[in-house]
Design brief:
single chain; mainly alpha; 14 helices; 81% helix
């Protein structure tokens, strides 16, 4: 009975993290692009906003602490994380800061619909790094998905200039495209590294500990981006930028605030899915939400949806279907093999009359 309850709670936690990831993955790019489209120009500020909302995580951590204190008594530890895990989380946090800048730079130059398809290619990079770092097993279906996603990004690359926003030079557009690809590669590396950190940690990984890891990662990413903001004098420029913002000064600060909040949903959901399942599933969900982000971007920003985007989107969806079909088929095969083993063991244990 306890095993069934634990299994149900694990599935529920996975579903919750998938929903959190969906909100952040679809809302984050839209609100970031809204900042740039309506007059925002500060890339370091946009990078900083992706992780500066980390103090929000302190709320569930405090709730968890007081809950544990009721059962464990006054000697309950406020912080569960040990020093080696702290160092690993801090290092990944610095990589997150770099990735934030690469992504923000690309988002400043590219339409959301284009950058979303490019970011979807991170599934291919996650698959490769997951194989190298955590020994992720592949099937013909998962390999097919990786190839299709890579080809989809390639189709966009060959026709990149046709999607250039008005007033954007070809040089800056191409640089934004390359920066976005670099962001996809780096984040594709980071997801398996987080999973590897969980596997190598010399302490039990609980969801409370996952929250602590997220807080440390975002803290160090924010520190990294804060240094960039100070060097670029972004803090001083915010007041001027707010006054000139197309939607209004109050709306500027509203966009900035909600950007910080929504991006926390993305990061928390991503590492939560890794905790509940795997880094590959986290990357797949990020990629699966691509069509939703595409549709929202086309509606909100009236972005063009040329033929090459349609081809890239079709290849991406084909890749997703291929992967999930393979996973379902693989799961059924495992269940059949397990059932056959149980049947044979039962036959062997049956006494001869």
């Amino acid at each position: 009975m306890d095993a069934q309850v634990n299994n149900a709670l694990s599935k529920a936690l996975l579903v919750v993290n998938c929903l959190i990831l969906a909100i952040g993955n679809c809302g984050g790019p839209i609100i970031m692009r809204l900042y740039f489209v309506k007059g925002g120009k500060r890339i370091w500020l946009s990078s900083w906003l992706q992780t500066v909302g980390f103090p929000i995580i302190a709320i569930p951590l405090l709730i968890s602490y007081f809950h544990r204190r009721k059962t464990e008594g006054p000697n309950t530890k406020l912080v569960l994380m040990k020093y080696p895990l702290f160092i690993a989380a801090a290092a990944i946090g610095l990589l997150t800061g770099i990735d934030d800048y690469l992504y923000a730079y690309g988002m400043a130059r590219l339409p959301v619909s284009t950058s979303a398809i490019i970011i979807a290619s991170q599934l291919a990079f996650t698959a490769v790094f997951a194989f190298l770092l955590v020994k992720q097993k592949f099937t013909a279906y998962s390999v097919n998905a990786v190839v299709l996603l890579t080809v989809g990004a390639g189709v966009l690359a060959m026709h990149a200039s046709s999607d250039r926003p008005k007033g954007e030079s070809t040089k800056m557009y191409v640089l934004g495209f390359l920066m976005t690809v670099a962001a996809a590669v780096l984040y594709g590396f980071m997801l398996p590294v987080v999973e590897l950190m969980y596997l190598k940690a010399k302490q039990a990984i609980t969801y409370t500990l996952v929250l602590e890891i997220q807080l440390v990662m975002c803290l160090f990413a924010t520190v990294f981006c804060t240094v960039g903001m100070v060097a670029n004098k972004d803090f001083q420029a915010m007041a001027r930028e707010a006054r000139a913002y197309a939607l209004g000064e109050a709306e500027y600060y509203l966009v900035v605030t909600w950007s910080a909040i929504i991006w926390q949903f993305f990061f928390l959901g991503a590492i939560g899915v890794i905790f509940c399942a795997s880094s590959l599933l986290s990357a797949i969900l990020i990629a699966v939400l691509l069509p939703v982000t595409e549709v929202i971007a086309v509606i909100v920003f009236q972005e063009k949806f040329q033929a090459e985007k349609g081809v890239a989107l079709f290849l991406s969806l084909w890749g997703f279907v291929s992967y999930f079909y393979g996973e379902i088929k693989n799961k059924k095969s495992k269940e059949e093999i397990e059932g056959q083993k149980n049947d044979s063991q039962s036959t062997e244990m049956t006494p001869i009359q």
